[in-house]
Amino acid sequence: MRMMAVALLALATPTLAQTATGKAAAGVETPAERLPTDVRRLTLLVRSMENSLKLYRDVIGLKVNYDQNLTVSGVALPAGVPGNKVRLVLLNGNDPFVGWIGLMEYSDPPLEADAEYPKRLKAGGTVLILNTDDAARRCEMAKAVPGVTFTAEVREQRYPGRNGGPEIVVMGCNFFDPDGLLIEMNQIVSQ
Fold this sequence. Notes:
Elements: E1 41-45, H1 49-59, E2 63-71, E3 85-92, E4 100-108, E5 127-131, H2 135-142, E6 149-159, E7 168-176, E8 182-190
Parallel strand pairs: 1-4, 5-8
Antiparallel strand pairs: 2-3, 3-4, 6-7, 7-8
């Protein structure tokens, strides 16, 4: 399997209920009671750590906070074989606990990968939505990363407001990352 992940980076804490500019997102309220679960991290199994870092660290702007070579069991994460050597890099955005991205590259032996990258999504597909400070510039930068394939250039998108609130307007683009994960990178213009 190309990727074993769930791409849902939820607004799990009050600090995440904000746009990249720090303004509260309209219609997003802090729960009256703490919910039982935070969405902690999405870990992607990648073909090339260097290509993935060019995108997630250098273009998207996430910060590397963990970078280690490990030996895995092949059991808890059902990939590869027992004793596989991997490199695990963890990156975070603005929140110190939730919404992180993990990148894991199997090196000895490498994981089998699909020969072709996806061109369309189907059931079971994954979309990672990222909110950034300058979508137009970062979308342009993403074009230079090996393996990135665009599905939609930078454009304005309009969505109905949350809970009857004002319309949400975002500027952004869509592309497949070097391993075939669809990313929507956007910037909230108004809400």
